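ok, trying the design again with the full structure, not the truncated one.
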């Protein structure tokens, strides 16, 4: 009887701790995400300017429809949906200077928020250490490091997608914002499904291990893409089955309406997908494929649902800022692919031999961070050598 009461008390205490840590995680994510995306500033601006003198007039409503909040620039700006006016503006020196200023502002914002997201992950690792102990904190950091490093490869894909569809720099943040938020929902589902598979079918660990080894080999041998063939892309072909596509950019809009005159001279409006939506769909499909590689890598470290979800989401949420921080220097990561392949191969071997030998967590995280450090040092050395040779 006493044992049962003690067990119940311990279980109740553990449940309370779990609830507390989940609440802390949710607060971290929600508050930081709202500030990073500029949603708070947008709401404040609208309420100050739109409602301060009572109900807005129709003129005010029309004006606000053409205003987009640009969280990376920290202000509201009017973006024309007329491609000709955009083209004419880009030819002017003043607009070129403005674009450079905007890029500098984006870089500063991205640098600040990359540091904030990494700092939040480290602080949260400290909370896990206090609540759950040393081992779980290391598992979180290992999972976070794996996901963060593998996501670097995704940044190259983002760059190729935007350049292939000619998405201007100023609109890229909106696509990434929508893509990352929807990726969170997809990742949680895939993580829960993967953990359920491992718990139901133990032999799946060998399948996941083999999958990681195959991905590592594929990463080493595949050719680097320079451009995506839009018409041949499977995501675009599937999208075309549901909605017609217009490859003409219309500002930051995902969908547009075009007036079509039928044979009976009756006008009707048809909804078209713009390059913005096409980019979003390709990014989502790419992230799905990427998740099928990266999630088994984290599950090879731990199947603790809390650790896997929180480490994965922290890495994803900082991906948007990381992209804008590194967008101008992607090509300088010369040895990133071999480094990521080495990490995947290491994790794949680790999960396959886990039945016979449990590799200590400290060794796992040391190997992963060691590979990353080695890759970046080699890339820096090669970059400096190329600079000297070009002089």
């Amino acid at each position: 009887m006493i044992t049962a009461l003690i067990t119940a008390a311990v279980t109740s205490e553990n449940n309370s701790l779990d609830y507390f840590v989940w609440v802390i995680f949710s607060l971290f994510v929600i508050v930081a995400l709202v500030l990073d995306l500029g949603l708070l500033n947008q709401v404040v601006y609208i309420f100050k300017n739109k409602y301060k003198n009572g109900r807005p007039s129709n003129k005010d409503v029309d004006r606000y429809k053409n205003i987009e909040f640009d969280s990376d620039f920290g202000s509201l700006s009017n973006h024309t949906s007329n491609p000709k006016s955009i083209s004419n503006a880009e030819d002017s020196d003043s607009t070129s200077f403005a674009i450079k200023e905007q890029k500098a502002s984006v870089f500063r914002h991205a640098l600040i928020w990359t540091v904030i997201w990494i700092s939040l992950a480290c602080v949260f690792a400290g909370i896990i250490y206090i609540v759950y102990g040393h081992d779980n904190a290391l598992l979180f950091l290992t999972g976070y490091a794996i996901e963060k490093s593998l996501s670097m490869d995704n940044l190259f894909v983002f760059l190729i997608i935007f350049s292939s569809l000619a998405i201007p720099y100023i609109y890229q943040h909106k696509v990434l914002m929508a893509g990352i938020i929807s990726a969170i929902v997809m990742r949680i589902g895939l993580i829960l499904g993967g953990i359920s598979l491992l718990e139901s079918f133990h032999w799946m660990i060998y399948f996941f291990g083999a999958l990681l080894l195959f991905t590592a080999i594929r990463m080493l041998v595949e050719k680097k893409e320079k451009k995506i063939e839009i018409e041949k892309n499977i995501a675009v072909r599937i999208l075309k089955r549901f909605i017609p596509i217009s490859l003409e950019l219309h500002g930051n809009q995902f969908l547009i309406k075009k007036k079509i005159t039928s044979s009976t001279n009756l006008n009707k409006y048809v909804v078209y997908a713009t390059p913005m939506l096409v980019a979003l769909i390709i990014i989502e499909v790419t992230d799905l494929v990427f998740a099928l590689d990266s999630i088994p890598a984290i599950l090879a470290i731990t199947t603790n649902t809390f650790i896997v979800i929180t480490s994965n989401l922290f890495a994803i949420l900082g991906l948007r800022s990381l992209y804008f921080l590194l967008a101008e220097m992607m090509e300088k990561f010369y040895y990133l692919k071999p480094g990521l392949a080495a990490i995947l191969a290491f994790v794949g071997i680790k999960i396959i031999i886990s039945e016979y030998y449990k590799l200590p967590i400290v060794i796992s995280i040391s190997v992963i961070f060691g590979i990353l450090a080695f890759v970046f040092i080699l890339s820096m050395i090669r970059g400096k050598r190329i600079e000297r040779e070009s002089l």
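Keeping the full-length input from now on. Confidence is low (pLDDT under 50) at residues 1-13, 56-90.
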